Amino acid sequence: MKKILISLFLVALGLCSYAASWERINDKVYLDTSGIMSSGKTGSVYSFWTKELNDGDADFILAERTYSQKIWYDLVHYSIDCSARKFKIEEVLIYGLNNNFIGKDTSALMGWNSIPPQSVAEDYLELVCKYQPKQVNNEPQKQEQTVKNNNSSSALSFTEFDPNAPVAKANEAQPTKTVDPAEIDNYMKKLQTKISSNWQRPNVDGTLKFSLVFSISKDGTLVTLSEFKTSGNKDFDNSASEAVKKSVPFDEIPSGFQHKNIDVQVTFGEGVKVFILTSK
After folding, report:
1. Which of 87, 113, 148 is the last residue in one of the domains?
2. What is the model's pTM?
């Protein structure tokens, strides 16, 4: 279920049962560098996992209609030949909003294809081929194993933060392993409140929705800001983007948060909803 970019399938971030090390390819695409493995057949062929967040394109819409449920992301297993400059898709797994496994997309599977210059696959080539494989002569994970490890430490998760919800307790699901979950809850609620207060919603169709993805550094600096899904209305989209920009600088990220930045998705509709995107 990949959208084609320069005749290549665009995909994102791998999932394996070990601790992952995600490399950002773009705002929606990630690659697990810690899961790069040698095929064992030749020294130039490697496999790896990528992940693509649902950006609302036609492929995801079709899949949601097929499965009659919302899709959050898909996971793709690749093989790449560094010497021959070729790649192929081995497996595509589809996941729902709760990290629940939905099914496989066999229509996206493909044999070996050449890698054109200035393509996403070339980005994969340059990134993958500079890494030494973590394991040699290992077969790729089977789908059943991936499903079993769906809640493993390497899964990219997201949580919607309700400003009216009670503060999370210590024994509830945590965005990270060491940070106090109550601190993260409070941080995200304050973030949502601040953005909401800076948003002046245009007098437009009440059903419009617009989403942005942005990163905040530990000191509260806005690192990146990118469109995730447009509403189709320029005034509405611009008002939402300005609300985020007016909210800078943000509060410092709570101590104990192990990642360099905190990745956030904010959706503007009738109100503002904030999601945290982080690899545990």
Report:
1. 148
2. 0.45
